[in-house]
């Protein structure tokens, strides 16, 4: 936990996607102080016309082939943790994958312990198993 849901424009290789996921996991570990094995990631790929991510009036254009939308579903995080996550993820994806920071859109969806079941029909945060 957290659960990261990536929406990517199709066309990246298996290795490129794995690198993106590995970078994101590294940034999660550094930003949120979660255990190493706490890795939940889902990738959905789309045709270019299925993703429209405009600049919200900020005055830049994204590269449609490189866009990534990332939804982070998580317990509450501090503003400082979120800002570190945004900054580190953008920097590492740029340096290691050539994905310009302008092509990254990140959104957090916050929930509570009762909103998580890791299997077996139980809420492990509530039962004390986690």
Automatic annotation (TrEMBL):
Task: Write the signal peptide boundaries.
Answer: none
* Residues spanning the membrane: none
Q: Could you tell me which InterPro entries the record lists for this protein?
A: Tauto_MSAD, Tautomerase/MIF_sf
Which SUPFAM superfamilies does its entry note? Answer: Tautomerase/MIF
Record's superkingdom? Bacteria
Q: Which Pfam families match?
A: Tautomerase_2 (PF14552)
Q: Could you tell me what this protein is called?
A: Tautomerase family protein
Q: What is the lineage of its organism?
A: Bacteria, Bacillati, Bacillota, Bacilli, Lactobacillales
């Amino acid at each position: 936990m957290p659960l990261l849901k990536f929406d990517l424009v199709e066309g990246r290789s298996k290795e490129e996607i794995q690198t993106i996921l590995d970078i994101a996991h590294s940034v999660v570990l550094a930003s949120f102080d979660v255990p190493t094995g706490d890795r939940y990631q889902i990738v959905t790929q789309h045709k270019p016309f299925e993703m429209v991510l405009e600049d919200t009036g900020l005055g830049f254009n994204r590269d449609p082939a490189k866009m990534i939308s990332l939804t982070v579903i998580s317990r509450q995080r501090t503003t400082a943790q979120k800002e570190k996550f945004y900054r580190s993820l953008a920097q590492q994806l740029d340096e290691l994958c050539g994905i310009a920071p302008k092509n990254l859109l990140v959104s957090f969806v916050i929930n509570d312990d009762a909103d998580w079941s890791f299997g077996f029909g139980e809420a492990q945060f509530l039962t004390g198993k986690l």
